[in-house]
C-alpha cells in the first residue's frame, strides 16, 4: 500500500529547506517541526529542525533536538557540527571546543 502522506511530508521539508536557504529560519523551523511531529525520529528532519532553530536564535531548543537525536543513536559529524554552532551562539566556549574536537574526530574517521 502506498504512503499517501509521504508527498505532503516531502513538500513541507522542501518548503522548509527553501525558507532556510532564503534566510527565513523561523518559518523553516515551523515546517520542520510539523514534519517532525508527523513523522518523528527522522534524522534528516531533526538535523534540519535543529539548524533552523539555531539560525532563528533559538539555540537552546536546537540543542534539545540534537539531544533527542543522540538518544536515538545518531551522533555523526553533522550533529557535532550543529551542536558546536548552537553552543557558539549561546556563548559556551568550553563546550564549543569539545564539540569541535568531537566533530573533527568524527569527520576524520569517515
Keywords:
single chain, 0% strand
Describe the structure.
With 110 residues, the chain is an all-alpha fold. Helix content is 78%, strand content 0%. It contains 6 helices and no strands.
Tally of helical segments: 6
**Overall 3D shape:** globular
N/C terminus separation: 37 Å
Based on CA atoms alone, the radius of gyration comes out at 14 Å
- The average pLDDT score comes to 92
Structure summary, number of beta strands: 0
- Helix content bin: over 70%
Q: List the helices and strands in order.
A: HHHHHH
**Major pleated sheet:** none
Strand portion, in percent? under 5%
State the secondary-structure class.
mainly alpha
Low-confidence stretches: none
What does the secondary structure layout of this molecule look like, with pairings?
Elements: H1 6-21, H2 25-38, H3 43-55, H4 59-71, H5 77-90, H6 93-108
Structure summary:
The chain has 110 residues and is mainly α. It contains six helices and no strands.
